[in-house]
Amino acid sequence: MSASDLDWNDIPLLLALAKARSMSAAARELGLDVSTISRRVAAVETSMGTRLFIRSNRGYEPTDAGAVFVAHAERVLGEVQALRLETRAEAEGVQGPVRLTSVDALFDHWLIARLPELLQAHPGLQVHLLADNHNLSFTRREADFALRLGQPTEDAALRMRKVGTPGFAVYGTARYAGLPRERWGEQPWLGYGEELAGTLEMQWLRSLRPEPRQVLQVSSLSSLIRACEAGLGLALLPCLLGEPSELCRLSAGVELRRELWLLSHRDAAGIRRFRVVADWLQQRLQADAQLLAGD
């Protein structure tokens, strides 16, 4: 047996013996029996290849090697205890960075106006908003949370929960107000480029008859909203994002619905600040469910 075979759980046991100088006292302190103490001391001495304690009329005293062992063991035990405390504080404290990724318009038109509530309740949080249409890696910890339109592919690292069903409607500036549905296809339209051609919004747009003429293609929802506000044409937008703007809603109802999913790494459930943020996001989305749905 070598020092590499040392059982680190024996460190508190040897420290207790060095302090008490008595097998029975150390056993009482640790809630063990004397035979266990004796056996573990012998095992550690065998592992270290030297005697660590000698028995005298004053009890068990550390040898010179034992004194060196005890000095280092006290430092190691203190560092382990600090590690446990700091790790627990990190896990249980509602403070530190939280990275959330989503489409930029969801941040601009919904989340940012509601964030003061979260940050006032938990001022130690540092929220990082990552506007990105792509699926960042949770395994590589590129993000802690994501809000995505549509259920992602199953991933062992992901924890997924459906948090809403956003409704979409047609919007335009005031000059389009009252335009009958049968004339929508005659108007200039705004849409996404080839990289987003497979989205439900673009499938819906292609289904209009006559098929609309797209005068502008963009790569982000925020740009689509801005272009619509500039009067460049009609656009199919989430009701949640279109309502607070200066746009007019042309749709009497909802043209289509998508699913909104909150994604996180499965390990995030063990860290309190992540649990708090996830629960807050879900509660806010539930409170705004009617606005989100566009009914």
UniProtKB/TrEMBL annotation:
Domain named HTH lysR-type: residues: 6-63
Source taxon at top rank: Bacteria
Gene3D superfamilies, A to Z: 3.40.190.290, Winged helix-like DNA-binding domain superfamily/Winged helix DNA-binding domain
GO MF assignments: DNA-binding transcription factor activity; sequence-specific DNA binding
SUPFAM superfamilies: Periplasmic binding protein-like II, Winged helix' DNA-binding domain
Alphabetic keyword roster: DNA-binding, Transcription, Transcription regulation
Keyword Nucleotidyltransferase: no
InterPro entries: LysR-type_TF_proteobact-type, LysR_HTH_N, LysR_subst-bd, WH-like_DNA-bd_sf, WH_DNA-bd_sf
Keyword Nucleus belongs to the record: no
Pfam families linked: HTH_1, LysR_substrate
Gene Ontology process terms (BP): DNA-templated transcription
Family listed: Belongs to the LysR transcriptional regulatory family.
Name of the protein in question: LysR family transcriptional regulator
Native species: Stagnimonas aquatica
